[in-house]
Amino acid sequence: MATKAPPNPIFSISNFKTAIGKPVRPNLFKAEIDGWQKNKYLKDVLMVTNGVANIDDFSFRCEKAEFPGRSIATSDDTGGGGPALKLPYDVTYNDLSISVICSPDMKERLFFESWIDSIVGRAGLTATVPVGGLVSYFEDYARGITLTVSQLDEAGNTLIKYTMNDVYPITISPMNATWEEVNSYQRFGVTFFYRHYSFSKPLGGLEF
C-alpha cells in the first residue's frame, strides 16, 4: 500500500494565517480637505455666495474615498537595435473620486457647487464669483489646497497617509431624487484633479 504524501506546508492553514496576519480593513480610513480656509478668494465665494462657513465634520461625511495611483509615461527607444526600450520621461497622476453624505443643511453640496463656481463662472453670477464662462487663476481655486486620505488600523492609528496637493474638483455627480429610495440617504460623488501627491508613514516617521 502506497504511503500518503505529507501535506505541503505552503497550504497549511496555520502557516497561511501566520503569513497573512491581520489584513488592513478598507473601511478604516479618514479623508480631510484643508487649505481652502487660507484661500481668501475661495473662502469669499463660499461665504458670500452660499454662506458655507465650514465643512469641519467632512471626515464623517465622506463615506468612500480612494488612495491615489500614478504611472510612468514612457516612450520607445529603438535607436540601439534589437528590442525597443521603454524609457521614462514623465509621471502621471490618476484623478481621485470620493462619495459624500449630505448633511441636513446640504452644506457639503453647497461647498462643492461653490468651489466649481469659483473655477469657471456660471451665467448670471457677479461680484466675487466670475461671470459666466470666465476661468479663474489656478492659485485662486487650487493652490495650497490639499485632500488627505489616511489608512487607519483598528486602534485608530494612521498606517499610511496620502496628501494630494493643489487639488480641485472637476466633476460633481448628479443626485437621485426618487420615491423608491425610502430607507436611504442623499449622497453624491466628487472627482478631483491634483497636481501631485506625497505619502508618509507617521508611525515609522517616514515621509516621501
Short description:
It is built from five helices and eleven strands.
Over all CA atoms, what is the radius of gyration?
23 Å
Q: Determine the fraction of residues in helical runs and give it as a percent range.
A: 10-25%
Strand order of the largest sheet: 1-6-7-10-11
- What's the overall average pLDDT, rounded? 85
Total count of helical runs of at least 4 residues = 5
Point out poorly predicted stretches. Answer: none
Structural class: alpha+beta
Percent of sequence in beta strands:
25-35%
Total strands: the figure is 11
Q: What would the principal axes of the Cα set say about the shape?
A: extended
Span between N and C termini? 62 Å
Q: N-to-C SSE series?
A: HEHHEEEEHHEEEEEE
The largest pleated sheet is described as:
5 strands, antiparallel
Structural notes for this entry:
With 208 residues, the chain is α+β, with helices and mostly antiparallel strands. Helix content is 19%, strand content 32%. The protein is built from five helices and eleven strands, in the order αβααββββααββββββ. The chain has helices at residues 13-20, 40-50, 58-61, 107-119, 138-141, and strands at 29-34, 62-64, 70-77, 85-93, 96-101, 146-152, 158-165, 168-172, 187-193, 196-201, 206-207. Strands 1-6-7-10-11 form a five-stranded antiparallel sheet. A four-stranded antiparallel sheet has the order 2-5-9-8. Strand 10 (196-201) and strand 11 form a beta hairpin. Helix 2 crosses helix 4 (107-119). The relative contact order is 0.18. The mean pLDDT is 85.
Any chance you could write out the topology, listing elements then pairs?
Blueprint: H1 13-20, E1 29-34, H2 40-50, H3 58-61, E2 62-64, E3 70-77, E4 85-93, E5 96-101, H4 107-119, H5 138-141, E6 146-152, E7 158-165, E8 168-172, E9 187-193, E10 196-201, E11 206-207
Antiparallel strand pairs: 1-6, 2-5, 3-4, 5-9, 6-7, 7-10, 8-9, 10-11
Helix pairs in contact: 2-4
